[in-house]
Each structure stands twice: as C-alpha cells, then as structure tokens.
Amino acid sequence: MAEPDDIAIGIDLGTSYSCVSIIENGQTTVIPNEWGERTHASVVSFLEDGTVLVGNSAKRNIITNADNTVYSAKRLIGRFYFSDEVKKAQAVMPYKIIEGENNSVRIQIRDNVYSLPEISALVLKEMKSIVENYLGHEVEKAVVTVPAYFNDNQRQATKDAGRIAGLDVLRILNEPTAGALAYGFGKDITQKIAVYDLGGGTFDISILEIGKDVFEVLSTAGDTYLGGDDFDDRIMTWLAEGFLKQNGIDLRLNKYCLQMLKEASERAKIDVGRDGSAKIRVEGICQDPSGKVMDLNATLTEAEFNRMVMDLVQRTFKVCDEALQSAKMTTQDLDAVILVGGPTRLPIIRTSVKHYFGKDVMAGIDPDEVVAMGAAIQANSLQDAKSNHYLLDVTPLTLRVGTVGGYTDKIIDKNTPIPIERSKSYTTNRDGQEKVKIRVYQGESSKAAECEMLGEFEFSGFRIGYRGEVRIEVTFEIDTNGIVNVTAADVETGQKTSCTIRLSSGLTEDMIKVAKEKNARATLARGEAAA
Amino acid sequence: MDEAFEIEAQALAQVLDELDYFQVLKIGQNASPPEIKSAYYRASRAYHPDRFSTLPAGELKDNIGRIYKRINEAYVCLRDDTKRTKYLADVLGPERQKKLRFVEASEQELKKEKEQEVGATPQGRKFYMAGLADMAAQRFAGAERNFKMALTYEPNNPNFKAKRDEAGKLIKNDMSIR
User: Fold this and answer.
1) What's residue B176's pLDDT?
2) Is there a single domain that holds both residue A251 and residue A192?
3) What is residue A504's predicted lDDT score, i.e. its pLDDT?
C-alpha cells in the first residue's frame, strides 16, 4: 500500500466526460464530487467574473454562454491547425478556434488565448480538486489515460496538460489497457481477451493476453475520428432535415439552434438505448421569419436509430478485423470481450459486438468508470515497488522518417512492445555541412502525405568535414508512455549533438511554465449540481 | 533495492552490446515460441521499468531502461518465426558481431524482393501469372512457354528462371509416364 501522502490518482480524461479514481483501503473507488456526480462533463466555461466552471454545470452553459464554453477539446488536442478535424470543428463549435505559432491550434475566449493543453489542464485541475476535497489533502501524482490509437503529438499534449495542471504525470496509459486492468483477470489461467472501447470521440480495440501476473497487449487498432458524438450527429442530421422539410428552416445555420439540437440528440440517443424509443421535444428552438416561436417535436424509434448508425457500427468492426489480423488471431481464439465507454450501453452495440465476436460480452463494471479505475490501479502499482502485475503495452502506429520524394521509411513497426529504441545512421551529403534535418512521421503509409507528421528535428554541433565523412547516428526511442524521443550522436566521437524541433504542434518548456502559473491562479467556480 | 540485483543489472548493462538476443532472454538458440514467451515474461518481471518508477533518476535507472529496451527488441525479433530464422543464421555466421541487432529489410528492399517474385514489368507479370495458371492446370508445356516469354521482359529475374526450369523438368516427367 502506498503512503497516504504518496497517493497517486487515476484520471480518465474523456472527450465528453472525465472520471477520477483512487485506491482506498485496497479498494478501487471512483471519487464523486460534492453533489455525488461520478462522471464530469469535459467542458470548460469561462465566466464573466474571471472564474472557470468545469464539469456538468459548465455543460449547461454551452447554450447560454456558447462563445466562452469549450467542449470536445480532446478532438483537437495535439492536432495541427491545417488538419481536417480542426476545419470540421471550426464549422460546428460555437467557440473561436484560431491559429497559433508553428501551425498549432489555439482557442480564443474574449481577449485571452488558450492552447488545447491549457483547456484540458483545467479539466484535470477539477479532477484533482475533487480528490483533494474528498481526502482533505493535496495530491500531485497521477496516471492519465489516452485512446490507445493516440499519436505522439496527442500523447505529448496530454502529458503537457497534466504538467500545466500541477500534476506529476507518472504515466500516460492507454484506455483499453486500463479497462483490462480494472477487470483484473490475472487468475491462474492464461486468457486472451478483446477490449472494445467506444468513447465519446474515439474508438479503440486492443487484444491482450493475460497471465497470472502479466498483461500483454498483443495488438491495438483504432479510429480517433469515431465515437458516440458521431451517433449524436446522425440524430441531429435526421432532426434538422425533418424540421427543414416541415418548416423550411435549417436549424444548423444558427450556432445557438445547433447547440440545442445537439443537446436534444444526445439525450435522444441515451433514451432510445434505455427505453427503446425517444420523445424529442425542444420548446422555442427558433423563430420563423414572422417572429413566431417554434418548437421541435419528434419521436425516434430504436429501429430508425439503428438504421442511422449501422455504418458507424460496421466501421468499428473493420478496425477489429485489423487488430485481430495483427495479433494473428481470429475471434474464435478469444476467451472474453470487455466493453468500455458510455456508448457501449446502446443495445445496437451490445448485440453487434456479441454477434461479431460470437460470444457474450462482459460489462460488469460501469463502462463510464472502468478506465479511471484501471488508471488508479496502475497509479497505485507504480508507487509500489512490490507491485505484482506487469503491463506490456505496444506502440499503436508505425514510426517513420521522411526520405526523398515525399516517401517515408519504417523505423519502428506498429504493435511493437514499448519501451523500444532503434538507431539509424546518416552521413552528411555536402562538404562542410553543419546541420542534418530529419522529419519524423507516424502512420501506415509509405507516402509522407498520408502519415501524421510529428516534427522536424534539426541536429547540429557535430564535426564539420567533407561530404560523407561525418556519420551521425540518430536514435529513435518510444518510451513507456508511447511518447517518441529522438536524439543524435556523432558516431566517431560519441559526442551528443543538440537538437531543435522546428515544426511541432507542441508547447515549449517556457510556454508550459507560463501556462502552469496561469492554471494555478485560475479559480474554479463551484456551480450547482446538474439537474 | 536488492544489492545483488543492482550488481547484476550493472554487469548486464556493460556487456549488453556483446550479447545476442538469445543471451539477452537467457534461452537456447533452439527455444520454442512458448519458451521464448515465458522467457520474455520472466525478463519483464525482473527488468520492467514500472517496477523501478520510484527509483531516483541515475545510472541504475538508465541501465535498467537500456536493458529492458533490449529485452523488448529481442522479443520482437525472436517471437516471429521468419525473423528468428534469419537472425539465427546471422548470429551463427561470420559477421556475428555486426549482426547482433536485427535490422529488418527496408520497405524498398521488400518491394524489390516482391517484384522479383511476381515480376517488375507489366508484361513480365502477365506471362508469369499465365504460366502459374498453366502449372496449376498441369499444362506444363504451356507453362514453360509462358515463363520463357516472361523472361524476355525480365531476363535476370531468378524466380522466373527457376519456374521455367521447374516446368521443363515436369514436361520430361510427364512424357516418360506416357
């Protein structure tokens, strides 16, 4: 057992909801806030008086304080400004998304500009303070989870968010792996399991082999553009088109109406999953040209809903095929399937997953809380030298370097156990060359344009010689967090060279320092409990 | 921290670059896949960095990190039957010292290998495929003709030559049976 003052917390930082857990008296416990809420909307609302509201009460401000309320920040974290996801978000988000230096994404709230890690840091600060309120003392160590399919940029940005929130991030842990840890297994038999993790904004599938004390991830695959939000979008389109046909007004053209529509869609999805049908009623959603206030009324049946989302469900199974193939397995080789993430409550998901894997699914632990619980277990075990389980995780994406003509060369394959490193030699190709530039990518295509760029590294400070005379060995390392580090050394002298990252979506050390001070000053408003 | 372990870790880190993957995982060169896996689990139990996360930064922690990365590297190579066979040949060969760390053929090399297999030119590929179809249907004379045609487009393709010779032999056998 860790000392009380040494307690490390587990945080599931989700796209839509976050959750925090600790190990208390040997029990994994989800910590509720002062109103008994166990999951908290990942929404940050900046109030007029300068305070910040986070969680379910902030979520209600998406409509009333739309310009100053940020949600789904996880969809944008670690992305470049020019990416499609950012373009898509700009079209639908009521808050202002602007371009920062080095192609990064920033959010403008009144006269203040925030980076994505700063926004997520406010959610983490709230999670931290929920535990501190509960325990009555400060905590600073944490394990924070990310989708297994997150790339290096996204992992690094999440880690930065933790640091900005004043947390010592012990580990960036993959969400499906956390799910498996929470379920435990680890009895005397070896089992092969699949973790089907459909969250608010991302989908992951991991295949694990679990022995007495070992959790070995055999393969992982995912889609960071697919989640419960997309199910809401389908309902939203259906509602908006129905309304357009009936009244000739497109609700999607007004960001205010759009938010009401979005909220109604999320509620309808939950209702239809639980009750088999949903009555949708939004009073005063808009006014017609003559100024008459109009209501939105509709009924969504389960059959209709299932038809709308079937292709999304099928897309998850394409990803499952990929993961099984990488693990050189078929569904018959699996002993169990675990469901993780709120949307897995939907009957359509349960039935389809059961059908695809040909076996009953395990959902004994609340799918909204299971990831945070796994994170707490890992946090506790990292604090305990006598810990009795070992987590063998993998890197989800192939690491590559850019070569001539827009192509890339493989450095480290996807599904390679981490930590791992690989070196590659480079020689200078001009007399008196002072710098070597290397572009690093992650992805499954040999074409650079189809991969995600992690950054451009520039090495200097080696000997100056004739062409081909100076050899530099570049070492690519993926650490236990799945984060990539690149270093270089002069082969002959062993002299380490200095490195500058020229192109990156990330924050510099100085920026993190400033952001950390800003975060420490921010006052979290205590709103009333969600209705 | 156990003193014996500290000494062991330091010693292992020192000789790490002279060990082959079998030595890193402490198994024989003819170890079976299940033996490789349990050796990997055993090594993970001893050296997984998670066990040492509370250890202050320093030489011991760096050494453990280096050793564990090599354990993973060894496992990645040895768990794959194709890679293990090639690696074993590498470390038993005269260039053992240079080949202790397995380097996969680059994608370009693999592409070249694949091209040699099925042909690098559209016409070569076409005749080669037709030849394979003939072979499957036991039309050996037709197969030989197609492989010869394929060779006119890619005279140096070793795979095409091998197939032509194979078809040639089968024609003779076929005749002698009749």
Assistant:
1) 60
2) no
3) 61
What confidence score (pLDDT) does residue A1 get? 44
Question: The pTM is what?
Answer: 0.86
The stretch B109-133 carries a mean pLDDT of 80
Q: Are residues A221 and A257 located together in one domain of the fold? A: no
Q: Are B73 and A390 within 8 A, CB to CB?
A: no
CA distance A377 to A9: 9
- A257 and A318 assigned to the same domain: no
State the DSSP code for A43: -
Of B99, B124, B142, the residue that ends a domain is B99
- In this structure, the answer to whether residues B91 and B124 fall within a common structural domain is no
pLDDT of B116 > 80? The answer is no
Query: Does B168 reach chain A within 8 Å, measured CB to CB?
Result: no
Query: Is the predicted pLDDT of residue A128 greater than 70, yes or no?
Result: yes
How many cross-chain Cβ pairs, A to B, lie less than 8 Å apart? 58
Nearest Cα to Cα of residue B79 among B39, B29, B36: B36
Q: Do B51 and A387 touch (CB under 8 A)?
A: yes
DSSP annotation of A446 reads S
Q: What is d(CA A264, CA B87) in angstroms, rounded to the nearest whole number?
A: 60
Q: Is B54 on the interface with A (CB under 8 A)?
A: yes
Q: What is the ipTM of this complex?
A: 0.89
Chain A hits for B75, Cβ within 8 Å: 417
A206/A95 same-domain check: no
Q: Are strands A336-340 and A191-198 parallel, antiparallel or unpaired?
A: parallel
- The verdict on a CB contact (< 8 Å) between A421 and B69 is yes
Using an 8 Å Cβ cutoff, are A473 and A424 in contact? yes
State residue A2's pLDDT score: 45
Cβ of residue B69 closer than 8 Å to a chain A Cβ = yes
pLDDT digits (tens, 9 = 90+) for A235-252: 999 999 999 999 999 998
Domain of residue A478, CATH code: 2.60.34.10
SS3 (DSSP) at B26: coil
Give the chain A residue nearest B73 (alpha carbons). A420
A205 with A260, same domain? no
Arithmetic mean of pLDDT over chain B: 88
**Residue A438 pLDDT > 50, yes or no?**
yes
State which of B99, B133, B153 marks the end of a domain.
Answer: B99
Higher pLDDT, A468 or A65: A65
Whether B75 and chain A come into contact, CB under 8 Å, resolves to: yes
- Interface touch A417/B65, C-beta < 8 Å: no
What number is the average pLDDT over the span A415-436? 88
HEC assignment per residue over A190-251: CEEEEEEEECCCCEEEEEEEECCCEEEEEEEEEECCCCHHHHHHHHHHHHHHHHHHHHCCCH
| CA–CA dist A241, B15 (Å, integer) | 69
Annotated active-site positions of A, please? 12, 74, 175, 197
Range of the domain at A322: 186-225+312-362
Would the pLDDT of A309 be above 90? yes
Distances (CA, A) of A451 to A162, A315, A409, A447: 27, 20, 11, 7
Mark A389-426 as b/e (b = at least 16 C-beta within 10 Å).
Answer: bbbbbbbbbbbbbbeeeeebebbbbbbbbbbbbbbeeb
* Residue B89 sits in the same domain as residue B17: yes
Residue A526, in any domain of the structure: no
